[in-house]
Design brief:
Elements lengths: L1 E6 L6 E6 L2 H6 L11 H13 L8 E7 L7 H13 L3 E7 L5 H8 L5 E4 L3 H4 L4 H15 L7 E5 L12 E2 L8 E4 L17 E5 L10 E5 L8 E11 L4 E9 L6 E7 L6 E10 L4 E8 L7 E10 L7
Parallel strand pairs: 1-3, 3-4, 4-5
Antiparallel strand pairs: 1-2, 6-16, 7-10, 8-9, 9-16, 10-15, 11-14, 11-16, 12-13, 12-15
The chain binds calcium ion.
Calcium ion binds next to strand 9 and strand 16.
Length: 316
C-alpha cells in the first residue's frame, strides 16, 4: 500500500509524497496553518503527478487533510475527487477543526465512513493518539473495499468472423479501407508481426496501388450510452520507414471536426496503448484515420479498441 498525504491549500501542499509505511504517513502529518482553498488542485496533483509517475500494482491511498468548510469550491472539488476515485485512487478525508463541512468531506471520500475528524492537528502528531489510530484504521478499511472497474460501453478486438469490425464502419468517401488481418503484414519491414490481442487486428496496407496521403477512415459506433466523459482506449502499431499519421478525430454535427489524438512517423516494431479522454454526447462521431506515407513501408495497425465510461483509468 502506498499512502500520500496532501492538504488542500492554494499550493496543494504534499506533506508526505509517497510512503509504503502507514505509520510513517500518519506520523508525517504536521500542524499546518495554510489557508485552504483548492482541494481539486491537490487531488489532481496527487493522482496525476505523484502516483502516475510511479507505476504500482499496490493500493494507493491519499489522505486529504482539510480544515476548510465553506471556502472549498464544491463544483470543482467533487468531479476531481470522483475522477481520482474512478482512476483507482482511494481517498480518506481528515477534517481538522470546527469549520469542516462533513457532507462535502464524505462526498470527496465517497463515504462518510471514510472521514475522520480531529479538533486540532496536535491530536494527530501525538504518539498513539486515538485520532491517528482512527485514521490508520480508515486507510486500511479503504483498501478492503473493491474498486469498481471501469464500465466498458463497447469494445472490439477483430476476433469475430461474423462481425469483425464490431459495428464500426469504413468510410466510403476515402481512398481505401482498413484490412482485417492475422500474422505479419505482406511487406517487410513494416507493420505488425502479430495481433496485440488474440489472432486478428486491422491495418492499412501501404503497398501499391496506394498513393502518398491516401486515407483510410473508420467510424467508431455511435452509442446511446455515450455521454459525458468517456475514455477511448486502443492499441496501435506504427512501424516502417514511411509511416505517416494515425489520428483520432471527434466530430459533432454542429462543429468542425477536431483531432483529439495523433501520432506520426515510425514508432518502432511494437504495439502501444493510447488512452484518450473525451467529453461526448450520443451525437458524437469518432473516427480513426490513418494516412499512407511516401512509399510502401507505411503499414499502420490497430487492435483492442474500447470505449469506457468515465475518465481514463490511470496506467497500471
Ligand atoms: Ca485482436
Amino acid at each position: 500500500m502506498q499512502v500520500a498525504v496532501i492538504t488542500y491549500s492554494s499550493k496543494a501542499l504534499i506533506k508526505s509524497p509517497l510512503s509504503d509505511s502507514l505509520s510513517e504517513a500518519v506520523s508525517s502529518l504536521t500542524p499546518d496553518s495554510t489557508t485552504n482553498r483548492n482541494v481539486s488542485g491537490a487531488i489532481r496533483l496527487a493522482y496525476s503527478t505523484i502516483f502516475d509517475s510511479t507505476p504500482s500494482s499496490s493500493d494507493r491511498v491519499v489522505v486529504v487533510v482539510t480544515t476548510a468548510g465553506a471556502t472549498v469550491d464544491t463544483e470543482k472539488t467533487l468531479p476531481e475527487a470522483l475522477a481520482a476515485r474512478r482512476s483507482g485512487l482511494r481517498l480518506v478525508v481528515l477534517g481538522v477543526g470546527p469549520l469542516v463541512n462533513g457532507t462535502e468531506a464524505a462526498a470527496i471520500a465517497g463515504s462518510d465512513s471514510l472521514v475522520v475528524y480531529a479538533d486540532s492537528f496536535s491530536q494527530l502528531v501525538l504518539r498513539d493518539s486515538p485520532v491517528a489510530g482512527a485514521l490508520a484504521a480508515k486507510i486500511c478499511q479503504t483498501s478492503q473495499s473493491p474498486i469498481s472497474p471501469p464500465v466498458t460501453l463497447w469494445s472490439c478486438s477483430f476476433e469475430s468472423s461474423s462481425a469483425p469490425l464490431c459495428g464500426m464502419t469504413q468510410d466510403t468517401t476515402d481512398q481505401f479501407d482498413w484490412t482485417v488481418f492475422t500474422g505479419p503484414t505482406p511487406s517487410d519491414p513494416t507493420g505488425p508481426d502479430s495481433a496485440f490481442d488474440g489472432q486478428y487486428y486491422i491495418y492499412i496496407e501501404a503497398s501499391s496501388p496506394r498513393q502518398p496521403d491516401d486515407e483510410a477512415r473508420l467510424f467508431l459506433p455511435r452509442l446511446n450510452t455515450m455521454s459525458g466523459t468517456v475514455c477511448i482506449d486502443f492499441h496501435y502499431h506504427m512501424f516502417g520507414f514511411h509511416i505517416n499519421t494515425l489520428k483520432l478525430i471527434q466530430r459533432q454535427s454542429s462543429t468542425t471536426p477536431s483531432t483529439v489524438w495523433m501520432r506520426s512517423r515510425d514508432q518502432g516494431n511494437r504495439w502501444y496503448e493510447a488512452r484518450v479522454e473525451l467529453d461526448v454526447t450520443s451525437d458524437t462521431q469518432l473516427l480513426l484515420v490513418a494516412s499512407r506515407g511516401q512509399e510502401y513501408s507505411g503499414d499502420i495497425g490497430l487492435d483492442a479498441i474500447s470505449i469506457l465510461a468515465g475518465p481514463c483509468p490511470s496506467a497500471s
